[in-house]
Amino acid sequence: MGKKVEAQKNKKEAKELQAATRTLTVHLHKMVHGIKFKKKAPRAVAEIKKLATKSMFTKDVRIDPELNKEIWKNGIRNLPRRINIILERKKNEEDDDDKEEKMYTLVKLAPLAEI
Q1: For residues 36-54, b (16+ Cβ closer than 10 Å) or e, as one string?
Q2: What pLDDT score was predicted for residue 113?
Q3: Residue 32: is it exposed, middle or buried by C-beta count within 10 angstroms (0-12/13-18/19+)?
Q4: Phi–psi pair at 6, nearest 5 degrees
Q5: Rounded CA separation 16/107 (Å)
Q6: Sign (positive/negative) of CA torsion 84, 88, 93, 99?
Q7: Could you say which residues of the chain have pLDDT below 50?
Q8: Which regions of the chain does DSSP assign to beta strands (E)?
């Protein structure tokens, strides 16, 4: 029984997340279809955070201000149909030693040349 517990601990250590980057095209129009006009841009930001959490396996998701401006550039109700984003999983290097999350995800706007 002792070997089994040690094997499970080793598996958990091996599953620790590494720094990674992904580029995605997000179809915002699909995400906010049927949402009230005055809630479209906030919902789009929330949906991008949810997508980042699901694909990068981190609870701490941070939106770059440039991406936020791109979503809101036409106002609260007229979003861009699609948006290209970069998801970067990074090590959390805050001053606190007992941090809950070891990694966080930074969501940035992808430059047009990269696509």
Answers
A1: eeeebbeebbebbeebbee
A2: 74
A3: buried
A4: -65, -40
A5: 21
A6: positive
A7: none
A8: 20-27, 61-63, 82-91, 103-109
Q: Are 110 and 66 in contact (CB under 8 A)?
A: no
Tokens read off for 54: 């699901």
CA–centroid distance for 90 within its chain: 11
Beta bridge pairs of residue 98: none
| pLDDT at residue number 94 | 74
* pLDDT at residue 112, rounded to an integer: 82
pTM summary value: 0.82
Residue 39: its pLDDT value, please?
Answer: 97
Give the integer Cα–Cα distance in Å for 114 and 100.
Answer: 33
3-state percent breakdown (helix, strand, coil) of the chain, nearest 5: 40, 25, 35
Contacts of the segment 89-93: beta carbons below 8 A, 24+ positions apart: 89/17, 89/18, 89/19, 89/20, 89/21, 89/56, 89/57, 89/58, 90/19, 91/19, 92/60
Report yes or no: 44 and 71 within 8 Å, Cβ to Cβ: yes
